[in-house]
Every structure is written in C-alpha cells, then in structure tokens.
Amino acid sequence: MTTNAPILLEMRDITKEFPGVKALSDVNLVVKAGEIHAICGENGAGKSTLMKVLSGVYPYGTYSGDIVYQGSAARFSDIRQSENAGIVIIHQELALIPDMSITENIFLGNEPRRRGAIDWKSAQRQALDLMARVGLSEDPDTLIKDIGVGKQQLVEIAKAFAKDVKLLILDEPTAALNEADSQHLLDLLRGFRERGVTSIMISHKLNEIEAISDSITILRDGKTVETLDVKADGVDEDRIVRGMVGRELSSRFPDHTPNIGEVFFEVRDWNVRHPISADRQVCKHESFNVRKGEIVGFAGLMGAGRTELAMSIFGRSYGVFESGQIFKDGKEIKLKSVADAIDNGLAYVSEDRKAIGLNLLDDIKTSTVAAKLSKISHHGVLNEVEEYDAAEAYRKELRTKAPTVDEGVSKLSGGNQQKVVLAKWMFTDPDLLILDEPTRGIDVGAKYEIYGIIQRLADQGKGVIVISSELPELIGLCDRIYTVFEGQITGELAREQADPETLMKQMTSTKKMQTR
Amino acid sequence: MSRFKDLQKNLFGGTTSNARQFGMIFTLVAIVLLFQFLTANNLGVGFGDGLTLRSDNLIALFQQNSYILILAIGMLMVIVAGHIDLSVGSVAAFTGILVAKSMADWSLPWPLAILFGLAIGAVIGAWQGFWVAYVGVPAFIVTLAGMLLWRGANQYVGNADTIPVPKGFQDIGAGFLPEVGPDTGYNNLTLLLGLAACLAVVWRELQARKTRKEMNAEPAPLWVSIFRMAVMVAVLIFVTLRFAGGRVGTSFPISGLILVALVLIYGFYTRNTAGGRHIYAVGGNSRAAELSGVKLKRVNFFVMMNMSILASLAGMIFVARSAASGPQDGLSWELDAIAAVFIGGAAVSGGIGTISGSIVGGLVMAVLNNGLQLLGVGSDRVQIIKGLVLLLAVALDVYNKSQGRFSIIGSLTRPFRRDEPSKPAPTSDTGNEPAKTTVAG
C-alpha cells in the first residue's frame, strides 16, 4: 500500500504481436504487494492482451519480455499454471454455469474429493465460508441463473478465493452492475486490501478508479504511457483522461474538405428493449440525424448501446423494437427486416467481421455481391461474369490485396477483409452507411486507407455513421459526434468543439450536456 | 513436369466448375475400373469380361440406386444449410403406401397418383419445415420425430400389409426408354440421349472458356480443354453403348432419366441462382446471411420442405420398382443419403458441398456395394466395409485438415467442394479465433 511495499509482480518489456499488428510493445507493469492497481486505457489499448499474457492464455514463448512474480521468473504455459500460482482473472463475461448451484460453480474444476468422489459435505461447508468472505448471503444450493448479476460477480470472486488467490485480476468488474452492487464490490475490494490480497482492476469507470486504486498504469496503443501513484501524484479523473487520450492526431487522417448538404436521415425517439431480459431498455429515447455528405461519429464506452442502436435501426436486427420513427428524405420509412433496410438504402458494416460480417467459406467475389444478388442476377439466375466484374472493380478501387477475386476471404488479412466487407456494402448502393468499429484490429496503414474510403463515400453525397471506441479516430474523421452513455445520447459536438476530454466526460455520465 | 502440373491443376485443382466435374468423374471411373479388374480377376477372365461394366449390371446399379441419389440431392441442400433430415425413409414409405392405396382403393389414375404423392411430400415437408424454421426446433429432433411418426403412419394406413401398384405406375421405377425407329441393334432413344449428353459436355466446356475470357481471366490451356472433353465424351459413349446395347427390352431406365433431370435442375439451382446462393450463405454463417438480407426462416423452410418432396418421389419410384408398397420400405435410406453427401465432400457444419459431389459420393457407395456383392462378399461384411469407408474417408480428411497438411481425400474430393479455403488463415490482429456461429434452428 505504501511506496516501500515489496513488489509482487513485475512485467518487463512485454511485446506481443499478432500477424500484422503489434498488440503490445515493451509494456512495463509493476504491482506492489497489497495494493489495488488499476489499468486504464481506451478500448484496444492492450489491457486485455496484457492480462492474457500474465495469466498464460498466451503461453510463455508467444510473447517476448519477462514476468517476475513473487521474486522469480514466471513462465506460464496455460491458465492452470497461473492459477496454481495464485493469479486468478475474473472476466467481464462471467464464466459461470447458469444451471449449476453456487457451490457447484465455486468448486467447478477444483472439487474437493474424498476417495475419488466429490465430497459435497465439505464443499458445502467451504462454500459457506467463502461466501461469507465475499459478503454473499444465499443458500449455496441456489442456481446461478436465479441470482442477480451482482451476486454472480461475488460467486466468481468466491471461486477465486477457493483457489487460494494471491493476485486477483478483475476485468471491468462493475460494467454490468448497478450503483449499489458496484459500491458493495468496491467495499469488498478495500476489505481484501486490508487482508493483504493484491488486486489488479481494469475499468472504464474513472470515478471508481480514482476512488479505490493506489496506483494506476495507463496504456495507449499497446505501450505503457505512465504509472501514477494516486496519493502522491494527486491524480484525478481529468489527469487519467489526459494520459489515456493524449496523442498526436496529425497526419493519421487523409486531408478532407467536407461538402455537407441537408439532413436526409433522421431517427426520432428510438426505444428498444433487450432481446432476452425484456425489462432492460437498451435504447432510451434516442434521436439523431445525418446530413448528406456528412460523417457522423458515435462515441461511447463498451456496452453503451451504440451497436444495439445501429442494429435495431438496420431492419430490427437487434432487440425488441418498442417505439420510434425513422425518416429518410422527409418521409417516414418502416424497416421491419434487413431486406427492407437494404432496399431503403441502408448498409450496416458490423463490428465483428468474422463472426457476423462475412461468410468465411466464401471467396472475395461471392462476398462482394452477397448483400445484393439481385444486381447481378436476371430472373433469379446469377450472371457469373457480372459478379466477377463487380468484385474486380471493387478490388481495384479499394486496393484489396489479393491475387484474384477467387481468393477465399479467410486467407486475407484483417484490413483486406474489412475492404471486402466495405465493398459488399458499397455494392448495395446505400445512401447511409453505418460503420461499426470500421478499423478494429487493423494496422495503421490500412486504417489510413479505410479513412480515405469513408471520406470518398461522404464526398459522393452519402451519409456515413461511424461508431468507434477510439476517440482520436472519431475526432480526426467525423464532422459531428454524438456521445452515448447507457443507451442514451448524452451530447452532440461539432468537430471544432470535440476534444477528447469533453467527449470522455460526456461518454461517462448521464448528465445531458447541451453544447450546441 | 510443368505440363504435368498444368494438367493436374486444370483437371483437379482448377476453379472452373468444369474442371471440378471432370475431377469427380475421374474419381468414380477409377473405382469402377478397380472393381472391373477385381471381378474379372475373381472369375479368371480378361479385364473386358469383368462383371461391373456389363450392361445388365450397370442398368441394375442405376435402378437400384436412383432413389437414394434423388434423396442425396435434397439431403445435400439440407446439410449445406446446416441441418439434417432423418425422416426421409419414413416419409418415402408413408407416401408410398398412400399412393398405392389411392390407386388400389380409390382407383386414382397413376399420373394423378404421382401428383398426389408429391403433394403429400409437400404437406409433410411444410410440417417439418414449420418446426425447424419458425419454431426453432433443431432439425435433428424434428426429423427424428418424423422418422417415428411417418413410419408408424405407414404401418397404420397399410395395416402392415403390402399393397400392389398397377403397371403404368411401375414404369417410373422399373421402366426403360422404349424402342422406336429403325433397328440399329441398340436402343435408339438411349443413343440419342447419349448424343445429347456429349453435345452438352462440349457446349459447356466452350461456354466456360467464353466466360473465363469475358472475365479477362486466363482459361485453361486449349489442349487441356480438348483432353478433358475427349475423356468425358469417351466415357459417355462407352456408357451409352452399354445402356443401349443390353438385353432386348432394357435400356436406360426411366428412374435414371428422372434422376438426370433432377440433377440438372438442382445443380443449376444451387450453383447459378440467388436462391441457391442463399442456402450456402445460411449454412456458412447464418448471422452474416441474415444481416445481408437473406430471409433465414424462408430458406430453412424451403430446404426442409424440398427434402420431403424429393423423399416422396423417391418413395414412389421404389414402390414402382418393387411393384408394391410395404411396411419396411425406405428403411435406413436416410443413412445412405447422408453418407453419400458427406463422402461427396459436404461439411458437417454446413456451407460446403455440391449436388454433383453428392451424386458421385452416392455412386461411389453404390459401386462399392455392387462390386463387393459381385465378388461374393456377404451383406454383413459389405455393411462393415461401407461403414469403415465412410468413417475413414471423413476422418482422414478431418485429421489432415486439422494438421494443415495435404489431404488425400481432400485432393480427391476437392473438385466437389465449393470454394473451400484450403486452410484457415492465421487469425489476424485481435487473436480471436474466427467464430463459427452455430446455425439457428
């Protein structure tokens, strides 16, 4: 807790590369015994990758650099080894089995045995003890699906204690929790600290970090920016934000003079409910508009509901539609299916191109025409030559690197796959393109090209919506930016007004700010 | 060396559909020749006198397997869409008994009875398609239920008896192309059919070359095209003469004709139409397909319904061939059809496979069955061998693919596969495995 506490963990010069992308480069992290150490950074800064390196998800040898844990070099080749050493990660998506009881979940994979059989009596007793430590008062036979998310989180932590945890890592522990549950969790972490447990906490909620942590390491673009001592440096939220976003914006974007027309697309009072838990409202009274030739950004943290907003507009492909209107060129349109949306000139490029953007079994030409087969077919019969020509034209225009359009899309790099997805939606002749994280997982060079394509689309008079978690990208690319927080639009900034600090504030608060 | 490579690439690894088809036929011919040799060897006669390629054997082979191959067409589409249909044998049996009854008891004329049978298939298919597509019950369960349901219905309706069918109806299963025109010593219609097939092969090859040129892509070298055409035409002429020159009164079977027509229609549908493309899209990645505007439910409904219609047709052909409908008709047909599709190169997870591949897969099994019987191997051991062939063929392929190594079966069946990436790309960037979304329903 104090500056002279012994060092529990040191990660030195950690570098981790994926094909085409350097996820971490020379990252350093020093965690002292008994402290709460926060790791901050934008989405994609490398926080999760760093934790995966630490826990052995990426085994020793697949990264470079050293990990010194409890005074000796640690070379974990899988999660089991790191857990045996007392390092336990609690992921954002909880790894609990809904149809098993609390006890069963706590001891899953770690069952107390007697003569080969599971000793449920002892398990029950230990479970009660562990539950008391995390402040969970439930019948240990209750099924996981019957308790709330907050309590599930506590079960995860109890599970960690069952493994004799020395270093507890929490990835966005309060992201899914309400105010009271979050507070309880933070109190719990303080209690652990008093009993000597060291914690690493990854969080986007800066107020919580400020309130609870002793040290903060800030990552940006896979590099360590700085490590702050909260008390000694007098750190506050603004200081953290500055560390997270401060970087040069120049020359990462092609020059562009926007040519913006009038409003042609408008969404009014949009309300959508969660597809499974009907009492959760994912979009709350959201209204926005897009002008011709305009690039409009949507800023928000993970889970703010931007993707859900986009997909619910795109032919109700997410959630349960409740109410709201869509106007295009002054007329109200009803988009009840994806086909309706495509016919009305909408295109949605999803954030996860591999899972839902592409059929990885396809080649470039089949992918390119997939969303508008009617354009290359006559009475339902496909014309191979037209298909080939269309795909070839986009391959040249977007400079997709592939020998021919017969190449399978699974063989392309992320940037080139993204170009194929863009081609697929440009082929539908949309008036409005919604691009969800268009540069996720793409290296810098390809990003620049994608920005150029987006700007050219706008110059053709199309409206473009860009959803991005990278603030510099939004500021550099967009003519106007909406901020979204917990399913609500919390602000609207013109490009000139948009700076990272203001955006970050609006993205993390429900207070509606009128800056226009 | 380079010539050989050229040949290899253009015959087996080429990207044009013609090249694929050629590769498939080559594989089948190799197996047929193997059994021709083995049967000749067994009898101690010359290669030309082997039993496999005798006219009567070829005709029997076709007649005995046409209904399985018809099922394989529908099954391929079901499997490509990511489902399975276990009910086809029972659907065939139930249709068979109703159609037989309709002619025997209600004296429905046989052409109407055929339409009636197809309508039964459509209704059953709509029932199963409804549960799969609109309720979201996995097809495995829906059709497992259907397997029991329609089998029971067959025995309930038919009182577990056999019901004979009239002569006109029998022709669709047991009939041959009739004798017309001058006496040439051969069946003239079969000769004409063979001629048409030869012309079609030549025409398609030329069309494919033209298409490649229009795409500004390099067509296969001319000599390869000619070689390919020559081999195909030679095989077709040989087969035509065998079918046309058999015992008097036999020729190319009507059921074979139905099969050929269906292969052409469905082959075109799956390859060249938007509807066919949608089936592959749904099986490859249903969520991506949905977000591209494909109507998921409609596609799933269609493939299930289509399967039952084809099953009812197969059932009628079988009843026609055996001249009566019985309680044990269509037993374990689903397994033969599914095996044909997978040996033909379809992927268990959906999205990959072709009609022609499945037909060849079915023929491979049929030739194996037939050849082993000709060699005097008992049906017990034939089953064991068929089971092992299916398992090994797919297992070897799966293993080699997981090792990222050259796949023997893959190289044999690659021509059947639809644009399969040879090896998953190194997952880039984020390090996430490419998620294979589970297919809905």
TrEMBL record, chain A:
Instruction: Write out the entry's keywords from A to Z.
Output: ATP-binding, Cell membrane, Membrane, Nucleotide-binding, Repeat, Sugar transport, Translocase, Transport
- Report domain ABC transporter positions: 9-246, 267-511
Membrane topology type, per the record? Peripheral membrane protein
A GO molecular function term, named singly, is: ATP hydrolysis activity
Q: What is its main location?
A: membrane
- One Pfam match: ABC_tran
Q: Which domain of life is it from?
A: Bacteria
Q: Supply the PROSITE patterns for this chain.
A: ABC_TRANSPORTER_1, ABC_TRANSPORTER_2
How is this protein annotated for GO cellular component? plasma membrane
Q: Where in the cell is it found?
A: Cell membrane
Tell whether Cell membrane is among the UniProt keywords: yes
* Full protein name: Xylose ABC transporter ATP-binding protein
Automatic annotation (TrEMBL), chain B:
Give the stretches traversing the membrane: 21-38, 58-79, 110-127, 132-150, 185-203, 223-244, 250-269, 301-320, 340-368
Q: Which domain of life is it from?
A: Bacteria
How would you describe this protein's topology in the membrane?
Multi-pass membrane protein
Please give one Gene Ontology molecular function term for this protein.
transmembrane transporter activity
- Which GO terms of the cellular component aspect does the record hold? plasma membrane
Q: Which residues form the signal peptide?
A: none
Cited CDD domains: TM_PBP1_transp_AraH_like
Positions of the region Disordered? Answer: 416-441
Identify the keywords attached in UniProt to this record, alphabetized: Cell inner membrane, Cell membrane, Membrane, Sugar transport, Transmembrane, Transmembrane helix, Transport
Coiled-coil regions, chain positions: none
The record ties this protein, via InterPro entries, to:
ABC_transp_permease
List where in the cell it is found: Cell membrane
Function statement: Part of the binding-protein-dependent transport system for D-xylose. Probably responsible for the translocation of the substrate across the membrane.
Q: What is this protein called?
A: Xylose transport system permease protein XylH
